[in-house]
Amino acid sequence: MHKHAKRLLALAALSLAAGTAAAQSWPAQPIRWIVPYPAGGGTDVVARTVASGLEKPLGQTIVVENRPGAATIIGATAIAQAEANGYMVGTADSGTLAFNPSLYAKLSYDPSKFTYIGGIAKFPLLLAVNVNSPFKTVDDVLQAAKKEPGKLSAASAGAGSPHHLALELFKQRTNANVLHVPYKGAAPAVQDLLGGQVDLMFIDLASGLPNVKAGKLRVLAAATPERVAALPDVPTMAEQGVPNFTAYAWQGLVGPAGLPEPVVKKLAADLEATLKSPAVSQKILDMGVIPMPLSSQEFKAYAEQERAAWADVIKKAGIKLE
């Protein structure tokens, strides 16, 4: 028994040494980066921009793979089921990590079991109306909602999307009775907002900025603690009389459970440096997105905090998805 125990300990030590050596030589081959959205969207463009900047410090090609569908669940499940060797990582966002656990009774992944690598970016959310709308302030919207409860309609990119949950938070903070109209994506929702079929929408800055700059949409307030640099004249929700109102669509980089620590340390450090580099950060800012460099520990803590906060909003709103 004594010999057997020694043998097991020796094998464990060998295995650990082999694992450490493999991690130290990482990456020795191209890395796959899963994006849980279609090609060409904001999340995809951000991922490709960051991946391109990461290739030099890592010394390897990063292949971005789009695995869209099922509210990021398809992509998230692929990452969760990957081998824990650092050769498959991916984007996980506010939906993946904060909303889905409360929206769905069952999930094919556990957000707490990912290896959190670091933050990437956050998309500010803004309350917008058609430029021909009579509403000039948030109070105008609230007065109209009070006068005819349920008559005002608000578009979103779909049930359970950041745009929808920002609306639910707004309704809970202000007691406004507004009808939610879900669409299949932000593009058709914004199209109907432009066409006057719906009264208002929480848009994300990246997809809404071109229409705001073209003078087709009017932004009433930003759901951010400070004013958004891209739209310095737009007041925050707090400035418009709705305190404690912060809503972003955010994202970071995760891997499967149990990624070797040396891999996580290198990837996290290189990701943070890439996001802070002037070339990459400026490209992201130009899209209407804010770089969010966070360490692996900071990103995990942020995701947990957001998960708890939005669980409360979702529960109060009584939203359940299948």
Strand share of the residues?
15-25%
The largest sheet, given as strand count, sense and whether it forms a barrel, is: 10 strands, mixed
* Oligomeric assembly: single chain
Succession of helices and strands: HEHEHEHEHEHEHEHEEHHEH
Rg from alpha-carbon coordinates? 22 Å
CA-based shape: globular
Amino- and carboxy-terminal Cα gap: 53 Å
Mind telling me which CATH architecture of the largest domain this is?
Answer: 3-Layer(aba) Sandwich
Give the helix proportion (percent range): 40-55%
The name CATH uses for the topology of the largest domain is: D-Maltodextrin-Binding Protein, domain 2
> What's the name of the CATH homologous superfamily of the largest domain?
Bordetella uptake gene, domain 1
- Indicate the low-confidence ranges by residue numbers: 13-19
Mean pLDDT: 93
Q: What top-tier CATH class of the largest domain fits best?
A: Alpha Beta
Number of E-state strands: 10
Number of domains: 2
Secondary structure category: alpha/beta
Number of helices: 11
